Amino acid sequence: QGNMAFTGKYEFEGDENYDDFVKKIGLPSDKIEMGRNCKIVTEVVQNGNDFTWTQHFPGGRTTTNAFTIDKESEMETMGGKKFKATVKMEDGKIVAEFPNYRHTAEICGGKLVEISTTSGVVYKRTSKRIA
């Protein structure tokens, strides 16, 4: 806990099962196109159990989720919907239950590995550390 393992800037490197996943969670097709192979830069600031998780999209759009482990926080989904969730830390992984999927994030060999699961579809996104 609190080893600041997540702090850094990560650039999208690759993903698996993107289309199946975003269709399952009902993203509109314009959002699906926008997100495909999108060079998202994820910036994470970790201060003990407090996190600020910002995604910078090409074209200047950003989304930020600020949360504290084990406390209910207001978050925003990929599609821009607001919801409340309690983010947990399990075996060094951040785990969040979104309204229609479960999301985990971990640092694996210097990369940010995020896995979202919904109705049997597993979407995996890998980002490489750039700062």
Automatic annotation (TrEMBL):
Domain of life: Eukaryota
Protein's cellular compartments: Cytoplasm
Thylakoid in keyword set: no
Single GO molecular function: lipid binding
Matching Pfam families: Lipocalin_7 (PF14651)
InterPro entries given in the database record: Calycin (IPR012674), Fatty_acid-bd (IPR000463), ILBP (IPR031259)
Main location: cytoplasm
Keywords linked to the UniProt accession: Cytoplasm, Lipid-binding, Transport
Family: Belongs to the calycin superfamily. Fatty-acid binding protein (FABP) family.
Protein name: FABP6 protein
Lineage: Eukaryota, Metazoa, Chordata, Craniata, Vertebrata
